[in-house]
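User: Hi! I'm working on a homework problem where we have to compare a predicted structure to a textbook description. Could you give me the structure for the chain below?
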Amino acid sequence: MKVSRNAPCQCGSGKKYKKCCLQQEKEQRRVQPERNTTTTTPPEETIPLQRMLKNSEQELSTEFSTGLTLIPTPMSVGLTPDIVLRLQQGERELALSLAEQAESDPDEFLQVLSWLAYFGHLGLSVEARRKAWADTGYKDALQSWQSERFLETTFTLELLEYSQECPEGEFSINDAKVLNRLRNYVEEPEREVDLETLETSFLHLLGQSHTPWQKKDFTFKNRRERLSMIWDNYSDENIDDGEGIGFQLAEDPARKRWMALTFEFLHDLHQIENVSWTKAELARQCLERYILARADGNLKHRSDAESLSPFSAQKMENHKPKKNKKKIKPHKLCPDQTTLERFLADRFGRFSGFLHLRAFAMLEYLPAWLDFLLSKQLIEEHHRDRTMRDLSEIGRKTTQFASTYFQPLPEIVEHFQEWYAKHWG
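Assistant: Happy to help. Predicted structure tokens:
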């Protein structure tokens, strides 16, 4: 039976449970994994996100460092080094053969797609996606949110491939060739796809839309602010079981502008930094989701008061937190060490290779992201310098882990070593 935090401790000390044995039990649970080397915990639960969010900042840093030593090499998450090396060479027959098997292991196929993207194979990536979607039951094996994200990335890659065929400045989302590409995935793109948003994003990607951005354009509304409750056929009978209650997230214009900005960054990565379209898109996706997760408050440190009960919102009104030294608030578009470590702990704590590669791509181009913001006059020099100082330890850990993760690919290991030396050496 679970003991209430405020109940008398069962040891008979006369103190409240939270002031007595609870702390000892927490400490025992924290050190137990270090002592128990035969744990049966599934690999994907090695570093649960919820535990990450409840730890102190110092413990999070330690766990992120520990997590990097636990992440598997490509071989242990489904793909052998031989397959990875063959994908690096762009072996078409292998990629399409793996696409035919996408339905049996969707996660492994996502990893195949991520390796193709990481190695810069745009045409082969598009061909493998088409084959898996049209010729197998892959789309039925995905959950709805997974399908949405798959199509979001696929549409971007399809349009990128098409843009290389059409004359510069003549791109139109209503072009018959564009719509035919989209029909490989949806029957009626005019009705099923938000073509206006897709075109706007893609024009930013091609560098054909030049928006004079301002800092106030990216004042995000968090999830709670965007959440509106809709009461349908309210009555006392249905309120207890939640019937008739729905939740709808209001649109946030700042998020649409943020999406457009990240596509401009994708354009600069390709044109200025000479990064392949596909690898740049991996970095863009991960960066986009990190900043929005932070804006939604998903990466905040959670105090005990927030998890006391379902009615914690009422109790927190009388909760007086201890006074801490004032911290410098990070710029809304710049990563900060604490939340980035929590985000990476989640990405690197899962045994999903496609998440690892996106995180590696984002980390590699964070310095380029700061230079991009500086060129757009969205940050100042001191923002960039402070952020780079804050990220130095994450850069060191990333380089250390890359030497293990990319062991079959020594040129990538060497690249990360040079990357760290260039920015923090």
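For your comparison, note the following. Confidence is low (pLDDT under 50) at residues 30-63, 65-76, 229-247, 302-321. The longest strand covers residues 227-231. Good luck with the assignment!
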